[in-house]
């Protein structure tokens, strides 16, 4: 799973995968890239306790914007990553993990 996570982490910030101008603060998906990079940073620093919060924020950002003109391919890549990182953190001993993790995301893991 570690290799798969690392592969996604590289793809998520690959300039060929990023929506145009996403690092500008006025871009509608700027919060999403911030959440994703917070997930990457907390994962790398082994601060797993914070992962559910940022997973939730990224997930709901995509859900809230799914009817907008967001970059569909990037959204799909992010959703795949959120599923994998969620599976990973479910293997960790994190207190109150279900407090932040979206129920919809958890139920999609069971399907």
Compact overview of the structure:
The protein has helices at 2-12, 30-44, 51-65, 72-89, 103-110.
The structure class reads: mainly alpha
| Helix count from the secondary structure assignment | 5
N-to-C SSE string, H for helix and E for strand: HHHHH
Q: Biggest sheet, open or closed, and with what strands and sense? A: none
What is the CA–CA distance across the termini? 19 Å
Roughly what fraction of the amino acids lie in strands? under 5%
Instruction: Give the beta-strand count.
Output: 0
Rough outline = globular
Q: Oligomerization state of this entry?
A: single chain
Radius of gyration computed on alpha carbons: 13 Å
- What is the share of helical residues? 55-70%
Summary tags:
111 residues, single chain, mainly alpha, 60% helix
Please give a structural write-up.
- The protein has five helices and no strands.
- It has 111 residues and is mainly α.
- The protein is globular, with a radius of gyration of 13 Å.
- The mean pLDDT is 90.
- The longest helix has 18 residues, at 72-89.
- It has helices at residues 2-12, 30-44, 51-65, 72-89, 103-110.
